[in-house]
Write a structure and sequence with these properties.
alpha/beta; Helicase, Ruva Protein, domain 3; four-stranded parallel beta sheet; two-stranded antiparallel sheet; binds zinc ion
Length: about 200
Amino acid sequence: MKFTEPVLDNLISLISRLPGLGPKSARRIALHLFKNKENLMKPLADTLGIAHEKILRCKICGAIKSVDANCTISKCEYIDNSYDQLCIVENIADMWAMEATNIYKGHYHILGGTLSALNGSDPESLLIGSLIDRVKKNNVKEVIIATSATIEGQTTAHYINDSLKNLNIKITKLAHGLPVGSEIEYLDDGTLFSAFKYRNSIGEK
Ligand SMILES: [Zn+2]
């Protein structure tokens, strides 16, 4: 369904491009914004403008940073830059998920995607050169590759492993196995295969 007002149509079509929103939700949001023109639409428009102007992707670690300040999220520009571990993730949401586990509180390198000819993600856009620099410059002892268990994620992990293998550091990758709380009979073949392949010993021997 099209409205007759081109500006509104354009707004709806832009909103529907946001993740998880279809045309129906986009229409609802656009009308809600219109209904709250002064107390929501205006501050949202202003904030979008400021965000567009003021935040960018850090060229060193891939985190989002302010144009006016040093990168703090993954601490890539700290002066005392010597750290043992560096965890590589595909995107910022993955970093947040890792942080939420409290198991790792170190430095991150955010690729911003996976290697893919389809969407134009090449080693340069994934900051692989910067990753090699960071590992060398900061005396990193272990790189933890936390890319997804998808074909693209694993291809990217292999590429990173190849790029770092001459640096004499430990390179680890997240284990693929049984999800916590899962029952064997309900697992898909790939998960079960990988859980079996990467099985661990329990107890002493
Ligand atoms: Zn950074």
